[in-house]
């Protein structure tokens, strides 16, 4: 997730790749230029009252539903797959939704330092790949360092929500969140819930529920 100081060449190469993707991603995509970071969304979109970050927006159906529910909120949607961002932007334009911007970004490559401190009133991590095989667990990006970065960019009393259908991953993520002293589990220590009232359902949530899977939501508030 976080590149070491000795990896400046790799950092520059990855930045160049992501900058090219951003230019191809459509009118609603944020540029990826390292000189522009850390990004202060509160200054960049000063006309909005609240700011939300979604990590892993997929095809954007959840993001669009949230944006319609909360037009006073600017929604920043992070997605690593360029094709999904392009499609999401086109669907957003057809729907006439103005309060979504996309960042083409693999958080396993880049995340630390991308956003300024105390930016987001809500942060959602939606059904990340659980990499269920033991030999692939190293690819999971939820860690104590990652959670620390989420806390840094969350606003005071900001809420962080993690959603998965994988029980083992929910427990692993919970260990990372519960170990962060600046976070409080709003349902009680080490507790998850199976649904959140009023929350739109993403494609992946609907798919998992239709398959009979249990859904685990972890919700934390920044103290």
UniProtKB/TrEMBL annotation:
Protein name per the record: tRNA (guanine-N(7)-)-methyltransferase
Binding locations of S-adenosyl-L-methionine: 54, 79, 106, 129
Free-text function comment from the UniProt entry: Catalyzes the formation of N(7)-methylguanine at position 46 (m7G46) in tRNA.
One GO location term (cellular component): tRNA methyltransferase complex
GO molecular function term, any single one: tRNA (guanine(46)-N7)-methyltransferase activity
PANTHER family assigned: 3-DEOXY-D-MANNO-OCTULOSONIC-ACID TRANSFERASE/TRNA GUANINE-N 7 - -METHYLTRANSFERASE (PTHR23417), PENTACOTRIPEPTIDE-REPEAT REGION OF PRORP DOMAIN-CONTAINING PROTEIN (PTHR23417:SF14)
Family membership: Belongs to the class I-like SAM-binding methyltransferase superfamily. TrmB family.
Gene that produces this protein: trmB
Keyword field contains Membrane: no
Pathway: tRNA modification; N(7)-methylguanine-tRNA biosynthesis
Classification via PROSITE patterns: SAM_MT_TRMB (PS51625)
Reaction catalysed by this enzyme: guanosine(46) in tRNA + S-adenosyl-L-methionine = N(7)-methylguanosine(46) in tRNA + S-adenosyl-L-homocysteine
Natural source organism: Turneriella parva (strain ATCC BAA-1111 / DSM 21527 / NCTC 11395 / H) (Leptospira parva)
Entry's EC annotation: 2.1.1.33
Binding site for substrate: 133, 165
Alphabetically ordered keywords of this record: Methyltransferase, S-adenosyl-L-methionine, Transferase, tRNA processing
Domain of life where this protein originates: Bacteria
